[in-house]
Design brief:
single chain; Thrombin, subunit H; about 45% strand; globular
Length: about 110
């Protein structure tokens, strides 16, 4: 029997983000988001083992969510959300729903 691994839908976006790095912040862009994480473009790649907080704003929603390193790839890095509260999880779900239904959204991105 074959086991199927499904990913949550991912959506293409272009949002400014701030990421905590060694007590400071680094600005970057989020180019893809899902309920589980996001793909970021940063000036410097994230080190494996990275853990911090990503901050972003969209419409009237301001988020600060803990994240951890998921994968590296030039020029974008992936981070996974590490929810510490149900409120954070629901805020991310709300953001993804807003982005998915925004005008000009071409649909979800299918990633293997």
């Amino acid at each position: 029997m074959q086991k199927f691994t499904y990913r949550t839908p991912r959506y293409p976006v272009n949002l400014p983000v701030r990421l905590t790095v060694e007590g400071g912040t680094v600005s970057g862009r989020c180019h893809e988001i899902s309920r589980e994480g996001m793909r970021l473009e940063l000036r410097q790649p994230l080190p494996p083992g990275y853990a911090g907080v990503v901050s972003l704003s969209y419409q009237n929603l301001d988020l600060e969510v803990p994240v951890e390193f998921a994968h590296a790839g030039s020029p974008q890095d992936g981070v996974r959300f590490v929810f510490s509260t149900d409120k954070q999880r629901s805020e991310v779900a709300r953001l993804v729903a807003l982005l998915a239904s925004s005008p000009g959204q071409t649909g979800l991105v299918l990633v293997k």
